[in-house]
Amino acid sequence: MIKGHTKNKGLLLVIIGAVFWGVGGTVSQKLFQDYSIHVNWLVTVRLLLAGTLLLAVQCMRKDYFHITSVWKNKKTAVQLIIFGLLGMLAVQYTYMASIHHGNAAVATLLQYLAPVMIIVYLLLRKLTIFTKQDLTTVALALLGTFLLLTNGSISELSVPFISIFWGILSGAALAFYTLYAIPLLKEFDSLVVVGWAMVTGGAALGFIHPPWQADFSHFTAEMYMYLIFVIICGTMFAFWFYIESLQYLSPKKTSLIGNLEPLAAVLTMVIWLNEPFDLFQWLGMACILGMTLLLAFHKKASYENN
């Protein structure tokens, strides 16, 4: 009974986290399109506040020394700074930039090319062998991306090229984020690593676009509501619930259920924002989701075991 209860708790956590993450991207698109929120400002505020809240949660769960210990070793401190800048900040900024220039659905699905990039990296480093399943995975990813971006016609793109550029960079940044975090996560709690990475990335971008440099006189109650959702639900809870679900579910099952993220982004974009999403784009989304399902069920995937 207890085992079933904890499993159900893990399922609920990852489902809510994935939905929050996907819907958070669509809400961000709303802020960019209707309220002209600057990408730099939103990423800065999102990272700083969500990271601070995650560290506060961890501080309530464990002592203060546990949270600051990652900075007491020079090697781990440097690793955390690199992870915060080239991992967390890069993932968040490229993802938001892709949404800003295109839409949340395309940005989210392009980010899901990260597993294929990881496979390619592992092959180049000779850390894994190329299997038939890898070939199928890469083929689905390429076909899905083609259909998603061209809507079946090679004469035109369904979203601007700049959105595709940022979306592909987001996938690459997510691949780096996934691989580079492994040593830190083996030594420190996930909330500590993710929380400090958010604060580090947000602080760095804050030098370029300070969070207080915004015309708050034009902020409406509706804007604040959307901002709170993006920061609390789309960032803090999305990361926290995903991490917590790993306490109850295997990484394979967690990543499988995480496929609800792009589905949530597409559905909310189409239903709430009335954005067009044509037949070939739905087929492209199905291919990319199929690719992630194959990876989730791939028991011998090297990156899954890390």
UniProtKB/TrEMBL annotation:
Q: Name one GO cellular component term.
A: membrane
What family does the database annotate?
A: Belongs to the EamA transporter family.
- Where are its TM segments located? 38-57, 77-96, 102-123, 135-154, 160-179, 191-212, 224-243, 255-273, 279-297
- Span of the signal peptide: none
Recorded protein name is Permease of the drug/metabolite transporter (DMT) superfamily
Pinpoint the EamA domain residues: 9-149, 163-295
| Protein keywords | Membrane, Transmembrane, Transmembrane helix
Q: Pfam families in the record, alphabetically?
A: EamA
Q: How does it sit in the membrane?
A: Multi-pass membrane protein
Q: Which PANTHER family match?
A: EAMA DOMAIN-CONTAINING PROTEIN (PTHR32322:SF2), INNER MEMBRANE TRANSPORTER (PTHR32322)
In its UniProt entry, the species of origin is given as: Alteribacillus persepolensis
Q: Where is it located?
A: Endomembrane system
Coiled-coil ranges per the record?
none
